[in-house]
Amino acid sequence: MRIAACIKRVPITGGRILLTDDGRAINTQHLGFTMSPHEECGVEEAVRLIEANKGDSVVLTLGPAEAVEQLRDAMALGIDRAIHLQADGQEFDAEATAASLTEAIQADEAANGRFDLIFFGNESADSGGFQVGIRVAYALGRPCVTGLKKVTLDGSSVRCEQEVEGGRDVYVVPLPAVLTVKEGLNLPRYPSVPGKMRARTKPVAVTTPARPEPRLELARLAVPAGQGRRAESLGSGPAAAPAVVDMLQKAGVL
Amino acid sequence: MTVVQGIALAVVLVVAVGLFTRRALTLYRLLRSGKPAARFGDVPARARAEATVVVGQSKLLQRLLPGLMHAAIFWGFLVLFPTILIAMIGAVDPHSTLPWLGAQGWYAFLVDVFAVLVLAGVITAFVIRKVQRPARFKGSHVGEADLILALIAGIVCTLLLWHASQIALHLNDYPAQWAPISNALSHLVGPVAPVLERVAVWGHVLIILSFLVYLPYSKHLHILVAAFNVYFGRTGARGRLEPIDFEKPEAEVRFGSARASDMTWKQMLDTMSCTECGRCQDVCPAYATGKALSPKLLIMAMRDQLLSGASTPIVPTAVTDDVVWDCVTCGACVRECPVGIEHIDHVIDLRRNLVMVESRFPDEAGTMLRDVDRSSNPWGKPQADRLQWAEGLGVRVLQPGEAAPDVLFWVGCAPAFDERARKSAVSTAKLMQQAGVDFAILGPRESCTGDPARRMGDEYTYQRLAGENVATLNGAGVKKIVTTCPHCFNTIGNEYPDFGGRYEVVHHTEFLAQLVREGRLSPAASDRKITYHDSCYLARHNDVRAQPRELVDAVGQAVEMPRNRERTFCCGAGGARMWMEEKRGRPINQERVREAAATGADTLAVACPFCTVMLDDGVRETGAKLQVFDLATLLAEAVERKRSS
Amino acid sequence: MTVLVLMDESDASRQTLTLARRFGEPRALRMEAVQPFAPDALAAALAEAADQLNAAAVFAAGTERGNEVMARLAARTGLPFAANCVAATPGEPVEVTRLRWGGSLLEEARLHGPRPLITVAPHTVPADTGPAPAEVEVKVPAAADLVVRVSDHVKPSTGGVSLAEAKVIVSGGRGVGSKEGFAIIEELAELLGAAVGCSRAVTSAGWRPHSDQVGQTGTKVAPEVYIACGISGATQHMAGLKGAKRILAINSDPQAPLMLNADYTVTGDLKEIVPAISAEIRKQR
Q: Between B364, B419, B420, which is nearest C206 by CB?
């Protein structure tokens, strides 16, 4: 069995977002970084499936040089190899990201065989474009199911549960398939230290893809002004309870 | 007769010594197979420990009656040791004895006195165990203990009876009046002396030899190994854990202990030294509040696993997960133990394997570990927020490239990210400004010291953070550090030297106390009735007990809790338990708050941000009439009071 | 100029119309046209309708389904797609403002291409009050486009009010302290007929299941009142609250981001305040 997972390096922002002087990026000084949360579940699922079914796994990312940290984190969870498409500080829009990933996936498949499953996060924490996984699936000509909370292999097809209001919708599609998953799919394991140590030496293939002109072109970023919430204090401590109840009554919920 | 008896003695001696030696060799080989531990340096300190703890029985004498009881038996054993040889010689030939010593009156006197003392000790021990029935024996093998006491009683009784019958038969080489008790007894045994003399001496020899054989299979093994265990104890900082070398090839790295064979030889020796006395259990905050952990039962379980030769994983076969996580690493057990067992090392090594290899630990602690790893603080908040507490205070933030100040104020994560812990940092900063101290903070360049990760067993994350902090501190040329957090104090001062970071590290109570002494800060005492809670990492692991009390005396009236100074009772946050839930029993923090409230104090003074949060929670939960304040805040209040008067 | 809009019965669709009208006269393609839901088929239908109408743009609501179908349309037709926009201005190129970080950051961007594909972030644009647009007919989908289609529906095992639909939510964060600590949260929720929510820190700690999580990677909620207890308010969490009409934040830290971005605040220990609110509600009954 062959499974691939695609990830993205994103900063851990906390409550306030600060921008760089030119307003085109987040000021990441003193920020920590992580894999986008949905994707960590995709990586964990890939590792579990390979553990159960034998095979090999690959993690891919399009990102700056430092994104190798997230690739090592994925390999510490149990992924065998990594492919690093170095973006060298340039911003790739979702279309370009999908195109670069598709190319890398096709190259790996030509050399090593088809991926039965490719996992993506449903959307990335930062840009939230909702489209990279779907674009890659279409380019590869494979069915894509999105927003998944449960994945079950069933012979040569995969049964997928997508969370909707009032329950879950079920899709069954044949392999090979592309799945975009959501946090809650599983609880990613805490990587063992031997896993982390081994990940330091697992192979990472680095290429620098060409960047086409972006068709969704970033002009600038802006922090939205306070969304009109006035932060009116109702008091402090238990003494504020009557004021709270008053507010609830005025809001029509009591 | 002599020849027959000589042959008989030779036979029993060979059998007994043979059996003993075989078992002793097995145990020795087991120790040799243990993983390495660097416990051979600093001989003078080790010798001092032997003298006080072993010969001087210092730890045992903390509880007077049991201490005296054991001292009597122990010193008695030392004094009476040559009588074993004398008895064996006498068993073969009633007319012979040890040259010189056997004829010394003063020795006979000592033997008499100590034999009686040993007997008194044994009787006392029985009274303690059967009448008083202390709780610390819960879980111990009391039957085994009874047997051992009975054997000891048998040894001294047969000795006295032998001496008595010897004197009655005029076989003694020493002047009889030097042995008053034996002499007195001799008048009673006169009629049966001939038979009694043989029976008593052979009884004595046989009991001793069977004791010898039984010894290495019982907890009485401690008489052989305890002295060594004390010798090989820590001589350096008590709060320092042994680092793991991750640079070695993966197969050679020791990730704590998964199986008994992973233990270091010192840890194996620990388990062999345990006498099941339960003093550790008595002082353990987890045990006292109904948790699964008992340090005594933990060591006994490790011992049983080790000696059974089982290769199954220690957790959960011998020790449950709960037991491993219940520990707050307060060190009360280590402090109490008369045979030098270092329980914390066992817990940490079990944790190291569970966390680093098996990824098996309470979920909420996993959140903390991830946050420490990715966000460089256990709260998972952005590093840039580390300056928020100091807004408007005019505190200098040391920028990269600037010269280091006299004092680097290491704020720590708690005051930066927790509103209750913030006050002590604010007060300390203001006081240092008032006293004209040249200090600065690192702000966002300060990462978590890694202590919570290390105490959880995640040594890998800890070493990464330690390396980063050392690089930052060394890069800035920092020489002296003041910190409000005893955990930061302990790890930077005692553990960072292992990673290239050597600084003079001072706790804020020490620093502030010195400023008061020097007259750079003038407080006016209030009528607050203050009880001071000693933090484990200050008072016990690092012996900082006096300076915080100087501050208490300077700001109010002091009243002590029963468990104070090095016998302090943990607030419950140590051992990374600040980030774990207590699932059983009563909360540790509430236990301590009740003790504080019982003193009649109105103020509970603390010196640690975790103690602040835990005890403040405890006050709210129990409704106690106490206000919890850090000493820095009390001092700031007192200085202000002086100023406005 | 015609603009094609993928629509259903939701408010979000009517909000989408507001922006769509800037690009032309809207024509609607109903999400329900393909039953059961098959996103590729809907994308195919949109592609064909857009070509037939020579649509100036294609719009949908930035709901899960809306984004999914539009992304497929984009992949199928090789066009760029701007998701979750709060503003869109026609032109060469089209100027959009879209949400990043679940709404904590705005991206001003230019969309280059012959036919802009745009979804509109729910609860950010007022609903259109005009007449419902005329509908476009949808042909029978091709078999290839029905490979990905809903084949079954599974009901959730838990009862109680669902987070996404709840009118009132009482939510707890790290400050609640423990799994047992949620008892007071559940108590208040029961009195209010509310759903119980939590922050990511709580699900990571294992105190509550992921289905209770509110936030960017959990459930996005739109209640009348959202009561946040002991939640600091990371962008992750705030991203799930965009739709909340009123936010009451209870926290001991007055500087916590959620306290600064709420409608109402109470400072203090939630362990005292939440039971006090419950008691006051009972008193007034």
A: B364
